[in-house]
Amino acid sequence: MSELADRWNALQEVIANACARVGRAPSEIALVAVSKGVPIERIQEAYALGLRDFGENYWQESREKLHSLPSDIRWHFIGHLQTNKAKYIVGRFALIQSVDRYELLQEIQKRAQNLNLQQAVLVEVRLDPTESRAGVEPDQAERLIEQVLAQPNLVLQGVMGVAPYTDDEATLREAFRTLRQVYQKLPPANQRWLSMGMSHDFALAIEEGSTMLRIGTALFGARH
Description:
Layout: H1 3-21, E1 30-34, H2 40-48, E2 53-56, H3 59-68, E3 74-77, H4 86-89, E4 95-99, H5 102-115, E5 119-126, H6 141-149, E6 154-162, H7 169-184, E7 193-195, H8 202-207, E8 212-215, H9 217-220
Parallel strand pairs: 1-2, 1-8, 2-3, 3-4, 4-5, 5-6, 6-7
């Protein structure tokens, strides 16, 4: 068995155990394999193991991957999206997880309308006070959500957040609960994905209600 297969099996076991602790089914949890910095060959290996959802942070890096890999992959854009790059992302990615400002959603709407398609998006909420973090402030999220819902070519499927990078369980749980509260205020039809939990904190995220994990290092190992 390959190293990647070992990691995938170990991940599934941790996910199952976390679900069991809070009475959830593993089938409730989607996993996006974060393939930023991962070569095409490794993504193909993950695909062969059955993974179909992959997350990318940069258009320049993802362009070749989208062209070279199987067409049934569901690509997620999970990085900070510059407004001038939206034209490359809309229609090529199944889900844009990082809508965090009005100017960006306007540009995505314009591009989606020009292509005559519906673009699925998540609103990214800032869970870490660090200035470098993207995301709309939690107390401003409701307004941005209303603006997304008003766009005819955008389909809001939930919210996303990146918790602080810490081992402090109380801090992580507080961040996840903040995001869950935003999610629970969405109209029921828009409550599809509560995207929270990464390699260092995904078990806690599951316990706090996550329905979508974004896992890179725990699956692919450290990037070079």
